[in-house]
Structures are given as structure tokens and as C-alpha cells.
Fold this sequence. Notes:
By secondary structure, this protein is α+β, with helices and mostly antiparallel strands.
Amino acid sequence: RQTVYLSTGVDPLDNPILSGSIINSSKSDNKTNVIANTNQGIENGKIGTSSTVREIIVSNGAEFHPTSFHKHIYTKHIKQKEANNNKNDPSDSIFNTTRITFELHDPKIVPLTNSYNLYVTCKVGDVTVRKRRKPVPTGEIRSGELPPSLKRVENVTITFNTASNEINYNLQRSGRILDFTTTISTDLKILLIGDSVMAQLAESFDEMTGGVKLQSRQILWEAWTGHEGGTVVGPTRGGGVSAFWRMTGLLSQSMKGKPPANAHGGGWSYFEIGSLLDHRYRVDIRSEMNAMTTVGAFDAVVFRVMHGWMEIEEITRDRLVEAIDLSYELLGAKTVILMNVPFTNNVKTMDDYWGVQDINDNIRHIADTWHENRNDDGKGVQHVLVQDYDAFYNHVIWANALHLGYNVSNPLVASRKTFEVEGEKFLFDRLND
Length: 433
């Protein structure tokens, strides 16, 4: 169970406009509730009113307004030993349980610099295509600005029905969609495993966790010249670790000793594991003291499930469970996050489309039932979570489709079934071109 606390404030370095923290609770109880941000108050460690929070946000010039549509999760009177995945130090203080916090920013104040992504091909300016090894202008100009459909909405009324179609609900939305940046502070040690797509996500995550500002990022090895195979940010903002391990298949004992990325299959070696776990870094990058520590073990491993490098029939329940189990056996992680599979250019047929849906159903079922099989002695992976990467892709695609004039539902109120039914038609128009 994830618990989110929202708060606001101004950091003299980063000028955040909205912030929050996440607590992972290992127990379900009746004290956990889902509420909406209303005038009754927003939980941020103290009791406040949404009008008070709104004044703080507006004073930063950020225009992020909490509304009743934004639901947040909070837990009352929770102890640290009940709240965290991997810490056993008991405490009655709710403030000692925070392991990871985020802050949202106006990109004009805190821009994303892409400092670690050296292969950004969508450059701002004249768009060119290569012909006979020479760039030829197409006449198009890339502005670098988000399209209106992905930037913000102003006083948009969204209508949707209840399951029985008996009652219509109207929600009025205003605010930003993707027009913000994020910074993260954490004392967790987090490892991201995946292919080149995960490499780009890791590069952004490293920047969000302070790698650029703290100058604490190191490339441990290259997969091939100029392309990172393993990286570590240590420490992050907050004292944790952010790491990346390039791999083209889910972690499996059958691939031990096989050729590593970017070879097909997901080969790995103990050299790579040792490089990650034995990496030494300064405890406090800003301190004059030179105290050092090692990664030792990870708190959490995040897998990008690599459809494309892996065939649909290779991504079985057994292969997913093996990767989860090895995250603890090889890396010490007690929490695993599986990114489900989105609609991409690797989904070429309707059979692919429904095969991907089966994979995602498997991922959700594993996460939903993991607690039934986990070890009571605290060994092994204790928590399996799902990052709904598929839903994020769908929201972006559907928002653009609306902007282009397609007859599709607003993604803010679309269900998984809606995406499946509508996607079966308009997502495959490209096959008929």
C-alpha cells in the first residue's frame, strides 16, 4: 500500500510549487483512507485547508491548484515498522517514516536539462531527414513546445457515466498536464533495469534525484563505446542511491554468463552485480568529511518489461516471478516494481495487441496476489508493485487523438475497457496506410 502526503513550500534552491512524500505500508488496516482535496483540509503532516495551500501555491506563481478531482491517500497514526518496506526501526513518529519525496516545478524555473541523455535526436529547429548520408531539410520546424493537448486544460467540463449508465457526472478541470518538471529526494537505494528506453528514463531519474546538482553520478561500465551499461548516482538528494543496469531481457538464471546488452536475450554476469553493489560513494557530498560507504544492497528494483527484445511468448508468469525472486537473491531488494507493457511500434498486429494485454494482466495478478506467497520471516521480496506505464502511454495517445479530431473518449475518464475497445480500431489505422 502506498501512502502519499502532500505539502507545499518554497525551497531556496529549487522553488518547488507542489511537493509530497510516499510511505510504503506493509500492512493493510482500517486506518487508511482515500480522500479528495476539499476545504476540510489537505494532509501534509499538519492539518491545513486547501484554501491555505492554494494561497501558498499561487504565491509561487506556479498555478497548480488542488481541486476535488485530485485524490490523495493518507494514513493516520502509523508506526514506522508498519510503514516501510525495508526498515525495522520502530518509531511512533509519522515524520520518521518518509523515504521518498517529490516536488513539482514550473519548467521555466527548474528546467529539465537532459544532462545525461547524449543521444537526443529530436532537436529543436529545422527538421531534417538523411539522404545519401546528408541531412536534408523537410521544411518543418520543431519548436520544442508541448502541443496544447498535452500542456494544460482550462475550465474543461468532462462528462462520464456510472457503471449502470444511470447517472451522468460532470467534472470541471483546469491545470497542467505535462507542463511541469519534478525533483526527488530519497534515502532509498533504487535500481532501474531495462533496455535503451529504461536508460533514458534512468537518465532523467538521475537528474531528478540530484545527480547533476550534486555531481555524484558515475558510469560504472559501458555496454559499448559511448553507451552506458551501468551507472550510479550516490548519494542522491536525501542520501539514497539511483542506479541503472542495461539489460535486454528479464533477469534469469538461464542467462547468467551469456553476452550482455546490447546482445539479445538478457545476458548478465556477477561482474556487473559486483560493480553495482560494491560501488563506493561519499555519504554526504557537501560535507568536508570524506566518509565513504558502499551500495551493499538495493531497497527496490524497477523492471521495464522489454517487449521487443523479448517475444510475447517469452514473457511468461514464470519468467516474471523468477526476475522478482532474483531481485532479492542477487541484489537484496525487498520491493520490486514492474512497469507494464505499453502500445508501441513493437505491437504490429492484433495478436500482438491482445498478447500484450495478457502480459499486463499477468503482471497485475502477480502484484495482487504476491502477499499470499511471501515469506513471513521477512526474507525474499515482500512487495510487488505495478507502474502503469501502459495507462500513461494511453493517456498521451488519446489526448493527442482528441486534438487531431479522432472520435475517442477523454482519457481522464476512460477505463481500461474503453482503451481496449477504442484502441482496437484507431490504433491500427497505421497498418492500412
